[in-house]
Amino acid sequence: MTVKNADVYQYLRHEKKFPLIWCSGCGNGIILGSMIRAIDSLGIAKDKTAIVSGIGCSGRVSTYMDFNTLHTTHGRALAFATGLKLARPELTVMVAMGDGDALAIGGNHFIHAARRNIDLTAIIFNNSIYGMTGGQISPTTPRGSIASTARMGNIESPFDIAKLGEAAGAAFVARGSTYHTDELDELMVLALRKKGFSVLEVVTPCPTIFGRYNRLGSAVNMLKQQRDSLVSMHDAGNMSAEELQGKVSLGILADYDKPEFCEEYEKLIERAHKA
Amino acid sequence: MLSKRTKVKYTEKKKKSKYPKVSFFIFDKWCKRCGICVELCTHKVFITDEEGYPRAVKPIECNRCGFCVSRCPDFALQIIEGRGEEEERNRKL
Ligand SMILES: Cc1ncc(C[n+]2csc(CCOP(=O)(O)OP(=O)(O)O)c2C)c(N)n1
Ligand code: SF4
Ligand code: SF4
Ligand code: SF4
Which terminal residue of chain B, N or C, has fewer Cβ atoms less than 10 Å from its own Cβ? Predict the structure, then answer.
């Protein structure tokens, strides 16, 4: 028996691909572990799972995961995943994207996948910056943060991924963090279980680029900042409005039952056959 | 083969642990010495050795919350209940 299901190794291509390419303390590996634990706890077979990812540091997850994997182009992971899901609706499809990947170049795919409510699980690795290309601002860079394209502070306001996803039509929207890993595991399972488009934003540290530009210290410090600035869904109920001020809440932010695209498509085919 | 493991011998024999015995495996080849496991363990189970790698020096204090395992970004840490000898032998990783 292992503590915290260290059986993750059977789902990793560790023999060929390890050690991970990411920087020391990069949160991407923590999210990768959570994705695997969720799939394992739901007992979904490797062959019945597909991992689709875009380009960016976060896009590397598909390289490490021993499932059906598709490493696509920058911003287009959801477009590829939509095609895959329609062709093979029996697959559980998880889509891993960076914040730039999902919301800048891929923003249009994101809102339309949500609008369509296709049964995909979108995991957005939100490190608030373009990590791979050296620290340009992304659509989630907070106002005032420093980036290579905003040396005197970002003058733009960031997207709220959860509100954007919900407004666009996603069936399930949640936010987790790499500090609150138990909660992240729970949310990951709920997002996977949901029939329809689920969005899970995961707040993750990029100590090398975002951390350095903004003098946030080591990865450990960045995780401690997550502990102090984010409120776990289990704690939010016991906290007063004052205590919650200025904090960002984690947990399930939207959960609806709506018609799912693949099912509607099946029905359409049936109707067409009858006609 | 999984990269080289360092098994820390369970030394504190006199003190009785509240918790069942666990063994720590740290895969130095994958560990990037970020210090997350060392700093965020609320039970101060780890120290950092002179090269910067974590070492589980007080396994007796571990309450098996599992946070060090789930927060290790590099899959370099594994905790096994008991002495872990069987896992060591059967590991077909
Ligand atoms: C079509 C296209 N445009 C631009 C790029 C360059 N590019 C590679 S990764 C990236 C951004 C990565 O940022 P993000 O999606 O936030 O992921 P992160 O690296 O932070 O995980 C860009 C702009 C590309 N590879 N392809
Ligand atoms: S640049 Fe940032 S996101 Fe990319 S691997 Fe390094 S820490 Fe992670
Ligand atoms: S399982 Fe918990 S108590 Fe034990 S070493 Fe890890 S973080 Fe510390
Ligand atoms: S968290 Fe993992 S990578 Fe970081 S020091 Fe501990 S064992 Fe090494």
Answer: N
